[in-house]
Amino acid sequence: MTEVDRASAAEGVPGAALMERAGEAVAHAALDYAAEKIVVLAGPGANGGDGFVAARLLAEANRAVVVAVLGDRAALRGDAAQAAAGWAGPTVRLEDADFARVDLIIDALFGAGLSRPLSGAAADAVLAAQACGAPIIAVDTPSGLDGASGHPIGDVCMRADVTVTFVRLKPGHILLPGRLLCGRIVLADIGAPASAVASVGARVWLNRPAVWRDAIPEPSIAGHKYSRGHVAVWSGPELQTGASRLSALAALRAGAGAVTLLGSKAALKEHAAHLTAIMLREAEDGWRSFLDQRKVAAVVVGPGASATPDTRRALEEACAGDRRVVMDADVFSLFAGDAEGLGRLIGEGEAVLTPHEGEFKRVFGEDADVAPSKLERARAAAARVGATIVLKGPDTVVASQDGRATIADNAPPHLATAGAGDVLAGLIAGLMAQGAPVFEAASAAVWLHGEAANAIGRGLIADDLPGALPNVLQSLASQ
Ligand SMILES: NC(=O)C1=CN([C@@H]2O[C@H](COP(=O)(O)OP(=O)(O)OC[C@H]3O[C@@H](n4cnc5c(N)ncnc54)[C@H](O)[C@@H]3O)[C@@H](O)[C@H]2O)[C@@H](O)CC1
Ligand SMILES: [K+]
């Protein structure tokens, strides 16, 4: 955002103009509340400046506004000093802010410039504001929240009802716990020129169809089932076949032309009792010759597979050819603490790893946790093994080894259920088999998975997800 600020100024939109529009957006959100008495908490930087602008506009709209300033008002610099000069109403020291009978609080203490934990008067004011029960509108970010990581920087952090942010969402608005601390998020256009925003070359996006839809191939009327891509799924052993079956069903629903499950005869008999459109093939001596002869475009290894030598061999055979590989579940037990081994196996091939947090730590180590954010951990891991990482959770991050990443916000809580991850693995393979590039296929699969869960609602079990995909795909196609 600092770069956007600079580029905007170079294109004739100075910081003061951006600040005026930012303050307007905050005042606009405040006017949604029937609030008479409003306290604006103003910090020492441009976030405080936005607060002063909002205070002026709200006073002009006949609200009773008091600005409570952290530190010395005379120490304000630049645009913030100018914004403060435009405020002629009552001002108090932050220490003296009175939260009794306040109808609304505007938190303009710190935004992008937060650099250390809240302490002293700032921390006390946040706690008192929180305790008084009035609704809180945060300017840019709730004070105390790191907009890059989505984590509070210290022990004290504002929890807002509404967060008004500018130009673009920041990762911390979507990653947890940030998303929960922000409340409802309002994204305001404050007039930064599109070229100034584009000049930054951001490589992280909220996971939405606009990011990937052009990369997902449309089936051709002249196509046939094999031109739509063949997916092979490595089956779990007898009495552990459900997970691989869910993957196979999802791959077919995602539009793969054909899907084959390979496993032992005993396992295939279980599959046969459930499946019709999915092909079954006994894997007598591994599956290498099948994968090669049947021109398999994408494979899934891991769901229900068990961390056995057979699974390792299946994975090695899968990685040996020119095909895309989705690795899930038991693969991460096989490569516990051995990210380098996994990276060697992937080599120059195209792979997607779909760990949840526990599996991620198993492979990449406990210290992977201390990296700055979920986003950066996933990006670092992707670069380390040379694959796309899908780090699952309520804020699933898809990170490519080239630095691109998406963050999802559309998964409902009831998607955290047994087997949902197996469905996701199959979805990714189904899209990749049709030729979608790996990063886009993984991002699309994550979004579709969330939408399918939303379409089902409460009571969802993973078995329902493949059947919910047609409606979601149909509405995506007609958007
Ligand atoms: N394009 C842009 O960059 C725009 C930025 N705007 C606003 O500018 C904000 C960023 O402004 P700044 O970079 O001035 O940063 P902030 O206003 O977020 O805070 C920086 C100031 O706070 C101090 N500080 C940081 N952590 C502290 C702590 N824990 N305790 C006490 N003091 C602390 C710093 O020393 C610095 O003086 C954004 O969040 C947004 O609200 C808007 O005015 C609109 C345009
Ligand atoms: K703030």
TrEMBL record:
One of its GO terms (molecular function) is metal ion binding. Transmembrane segments: none annotated. (6S)-NADPHX binds at residues 46-50, 111-117, 140, 243, 304, 356, 422. Binds 1 potassium ion per subunit. It catalyses: (6S)-NADPHX + ADP = AMP + phosphate + NADPH + H(+); (6S)-NADHX + ADP = AMP + phosphate + NADH + H(+); (6R)-NADPHX = (6S)-NADPHX; (6R)-NADHX = (6S)-NADHX. Residues 208-476 form the YjeF C-terminal domain. Homotetramer. Catalyzes the dehydration of the S-form of NAD(P)HX at the expense of ADP, which is converted to AMP. Together with NAD(P)HX epimerase, which catalyzes the epimerization of the S- and R-forms, the enzyme allows the repair of both epimers of NAD(P)HX, a damaged form of NAD(P)H that is a result of enzymatic or heat-dependent hydration. Bifunctional enzyme that catalyzes the epimerization of the S- and R-forms of NAD(P)HX and the dehydration of the S-form of NAD(P)HX at the expense of ADP, which is converted to AMP. This allows the repair of both epimers of NAD(P)HX, a damaged form of NAD(P)H that is a result of enzymatic or heat-dependent hydration. Belongs to the NnrE/AIBP family. This is Bifunctional NAD(P)H-hydrate repair enzyme. It comes from Hansschlegelia quercus. The gene is nnrD.
